[in-house]
Amino acid sequence: MLEYIVGLSAIVIIISLISYFLPTIIAMLRGKSNTFAILLLNLFLGWTFIGWIVALIWSVTSDNKPQTIVVNNNSSIEPRNEFKALSSQGMKPEQIDITNLNSHQEKIHNLQKLKQLLDDGILTQEEFIQQKNQILA
């Protein structure tokens, strides 16, 4: 009879520990980057049920993936390259208006300078929008 009680007690303790550390187990299985922090929260505040719920929610949410941002600062695009691209698309040289290409490049260059002034804090957002509209008009 005593062996039965000891065996039952061991099973209850094991099930209780698994239930208590369920958020940590889930975090480990999901390979969370902050598994150790979840373990600490679970260990020290899991007994408050609110701490256990927070740890559980934290363990099932997804990690933020790093985002790659590509910035193209190539402001030295020459009209000749655009001319080659347009002619490779089947346009004949007499159909391509070089003056439009030059004015297009000039607008792009002015917009890049304007954006730099905004980024440097020299222009306000309203001034930037006003100047941008003038360039694009």
UniProtKB/TrEMBL annotation:
Keywords: Membrane, Transmembrane, Transmembrane helix
Designated name of the protein: Superinfection immunity protein
Residue stretches spanning the membrane: 6-29, 36-58
The keyword 4Fe-4S is annotated on this UniProt entry: no
InterPro entries xrefs: Phage_imm, SHOCT
Domain SHOCT: 111-136
Natural source organism: Flavobacterium sandaracinum
A Pfam family recorded for this sequence: SHOCT
Keyword Transmembrane assigned: yes
Organism superkingdom: Bacteria
